[in-house]
Design brief:
The protein is α+β, with helices and mostly antiparallel strands and 327 residues long. The protein folds into two domains: 20-75, no CATH class; 93-112 and 119-321, Nucleotide cyclase, GGDEF domain (Alpha-Beta Plaits, 2-Layer Sandwich). The chain has helices spanning 65-75, 93-106, 121-127, 144-150, 153-173, 196-224, 260-270, 281-286, 289-292; strands spanning 20-27, 33-39, 43-48, 51-56, 62-64, 130-141, 177-182, 185-191, 232-248, 252-258, 276-280, 295-298, 308-309, 314-315, 318-321. Strands 6, 7, 8, 9, 10, 11, 12 and 15 form an eight-stranded mixed beta sheet that branches. The protein has a three-stranded antiparallel beta sheet with strand order 3-4-5. Helix 2 (93-106) packs parallel to helix 6 (196-224). The radius of gyration is 22 Å and the shape is globular.
Length: 327
C-alpha cells in the first residue's frame, strides 16, 4: 500500500448507540445486582493504541471497551434498571394490517369526510421551537400524475384519500407527527432530541409498515373494487431542522420546519423506485443492528446523486432497506 493511502481508523466514540443482543439481570436478596450481557454480533474486538475496543462492522465506529463496561454498569445501577425506549402504540403489526384491511372493506362506500379541527402537528409546534433534531420521512404515490390523468376525479380523490389516511395512521402509531400532506405525498416528523435511538428505529419500522399496507392491504382492496393497484416511494433520514413561523403579517402565517434534513430526505425519496425504502447514512448508522442487517448500500451514478458528505469526504451514502413484516 502506498504511503498516505492507509485507511485511517475512526477515533473511539465518547457516546452513541451500542447494541446488546441479550441482557439478563437478577436482583439478589442482599440488594446486589447480577447480570449477564451478550454484545451484539455487529461488533468485533480490536486493539487501538494498545487498548481493547470494539469495531462496528457496519459503520467502522470504534467503541472503547472501558466505556462499554461503564455503560453496562450505569444501566444496571440501583438508580437505573431500565433501558429507556419509546414504544409504538400498537406492537402487533400483523393484526394492525388485518384490522386496516377489514376497515377499508367495511367502509368502502363511505366518502371519508373529515371535520375541521386541531391537527396532531399543532402539539409539535407548541413543544418545539427553534433548532431541534428530527427523523424525517417522505412518502408519495408512484405514478400519481398518470393516475390523475386517466381516472375520474372522484376515483382519483378516493385513492389519494385512502393513501393519506393509511400513511397518517402509521406515522401516528410510531409516535411521529404528520407534518404535511401535499396532493399524493405525506411528510412525517419523528422528534429525536430525546430517545434518539428509539425514534430512528420507529421511523424505519413505520416505513416498513407503509410498504406492507400498500402491498397487502390497499392493493388487494383496490383490486376487488376495480381500481388500479398503486406503488409508493419512501425516503427517511435524520438531521437538525429549524421550527419557526413563516408568512406575511395580516396576510398569511403558518408554522414551518426547514433545514438540510428536510431537503436531503426529499431528494433521497425522489430516487426510490417501486415500493422502495431508501435511508440516508446518518440514519443508517444509528439503527439497531438487526435493521442494519436488512440494508444494502446503493451506488448511484454521479449524474443521479452527487451530494458530497464533508464528514466522510465522499458522496453521501444511501441505503436500500429490504425489511418486511413476516405476516
Amino acid at each position: 500500500m502506498k504511503k498516505g493511502t492507509e485507511k485511517k481508523e475512526r477515533p473511539p466514540r465518547p457516546h452513541g448507540r451500542f447494541d446488546f443482543d441479550q441482557i439478563r439481570y437478577e436482583i439478589k436478596d442482599d440488594g446486589t445486582i447480577e447480570f449477564d450481557v451478550k454484545i451484539a454480533p455487529k461488533y468485533e474486538p480490536v486493539s487501538i493504541n494498545g487498548k481493547k475496543a470494539y469495531r462496528d462492522k457496519y459503520t467502522g465506529d470504534i467503541y472503547d471497551q472501558d466505556a462499554v463496561i461503564d455503560l453496562v454498569n450505569q444501566l444496571f445501577s440501583k438508580e437505573n434498571l431500565s433501558v429507556y425506549s419509546t414504544p409504538p402504540k400498537t406492537f402487533d403489526y400483523c393484526s394492525f394490517l388485518r384490522d386496516r384491511k377489514q376497515e377499508l372493506i367495511n367502509h368502502w362506500n363511505e366518502q371519508y369526510e373529515l371535520e375541521p379541527g386541531k391537527n396532531q402537528i399543532d402539539h409539535f409546534f407548541e413543544t418545539y421551537k427553534g433548532d431541534t433534531r428530527v427523523v424525517v420521512l417522505f412518502t408519495d404515490v408512484e405514478g400519481s400524475t398518470k393516475l390523475s390523468a386517466e381516472l375520474e376525479p372522484v376515483t382519483y380523490n378516493k385513492i389519494i384519500k385512502i393513501f393519506v389516511l393509511e400513511m397518517s395512521l402509521i406515522i401516528d402509531n410510531f409516535n411521529g407527527y404528520i407534518f404535511k400532506t401535499g396532493g399524493d405525498s405525506v411528510i412525517g416528523i419523528f422528534p429525536a432530541d430525546v430517545n434518539l435511538n428509539s425514534m430512528c428505529d420507529l421511523a424505519v419500522q413505520a416505513a416498513m409498515l407503509m410498504r406492507s399496507i400498500v402491498e397487502d392491504v390497499i392493493n388487494p382492496v383496490f383490486a376487488n373494487n376495480g381500481l388500479p393497484e398503486i406503488g409508493c416511494h419512501i425516503g427517511v433520514d435524520i438531521g437538525n431542522v429549524t421550527v419557526d413561523r413563516h408568512g406575511a403579517r395580516n396576510i398569511a402565517s403558518f408554522d414551518e420546519i426547514i433545514g438540510h434534513a428536510m431537503n436531503l430526505t426529499a431528494k433521497i425519496q425522489s430516487l426510490a423506485k417501486h415500493n422502495e425504502i431508501l435511508l440516508g447514512r446518518r440514519l443508517y448508522e444509528i439503527l439497531f443492528y438487526r435493521l442494519q442487517e436488512q440494508c444494502t448500500e446503493v451506488h448511484f451514478s454521479q449524474s443521479d446523486w452527487s451530494l458530497w458528505d464533508p464528514v466522510e469526504d465522499k458522496r453521501y451514502q444511501i441505503y436500500l432497506f429490504s425489511g418486511k413484516w413476516p405476516c
